[in-house]
Design a protein that fits this description.
The protein is about 80% helix and about 0% strand. It is an all-alpha fold and about 200 residues long. The protein has 2 domains: about 60 residues, Arc Repressor Mutant, subunit A (Orthogonal Bundle), CATH 1.10.10; about 120 residues, Tetracycline Repressor, domain 2. Helix 8 runs antiparallel to helix 9. The model has no long low-confidence stretch (mean pLDDT about 80).
Length: about 200
């Protein structure tokens, strides 16, 4: 293979402006879909992002791809936040901040799952890889808290996730998120060692 052929075969790194446009579209899509549902106007997404509709479609050719990307972006934020919070916050504060972000990820999933059910028939593949990332992050945060003595050693990290998911599934009111955020504080208090 010639040098030219090898260079042509390697994918090019996206331009910085293209990366910024993609990120703006994802943030705008999250806001527009949160306000108007998964069937909200893609033109409204492009307008809010400050890009043309062609730019939106260049990054996300279908509504399905945009919805999946919004959800995956939320999960990437969770994964990155675990690292950032662990480096900059006390163990209990890091766990609390991460659980609040997890509530936002649940909201994104609730918005996206019905649309993906309609488009794909079964969105499990979209969500399966995310579960592993969430479990890894929560386990790392709880382990750090246990090691510092701030979190009880018998705490199952996944129980924290189950409690928040339970609130989101039981709540039929649109204001379940403030309730879930209050529950985060209750969970943190309950996670402390018994003295």
């Amino acid at each position: 293979m010639s040098v030219e052929t090898e260079a042509e075969a390697m994918p090019r790194k996206p331009r910085a402006d293209a990366v910024r446009n993609r990120e703006r579209v994802l943030e705008a899509a999250k806001a527009v879909f949160s306000a108007g549902g998964a069937e909200a106007s893609l033109e409204a997404v492009a307008k809010r992002a400050g890009v043309g509709i062609g730019t939106l479609y260049r990054h996300f050719p279908t509504r399905e791809e945009l919805l999946q990307a919004v959800y995956r972006a939320e999960l990437e934020k969770l994964a990155e936040a675990e690292q950032k919070f662990s480096q900059t916050m006390a163990p209990t504060d890091a766990l609390r901040a991460w659980l609040v972000l997890f509530v936002d990820a649940i909201a994104a999933k609730q918005l996206i799952a019905p649309a993906l059910n309609t488009l794909l028939g079964d969105p499990k593949k979209v969500f399966e890889t995310s579960y592993a990332k969430m479990h890894q992050a929560i386990r790392a945060l709880v382990k750090r808290g246990v090691e510092s003595g701030d979190i009880r050693s018998d705490l199952d990290p996944v129980d924290l996730l189950r409690a928040l998911i339970g609130v989101s599934n039981v709540a039929s009111a649109p204001d379940w998120q403030p309730s879930a955020r209050r529950l985060v504080d209750i969970l943190i208090v309950g996670s402390r060692p018994v003295k």
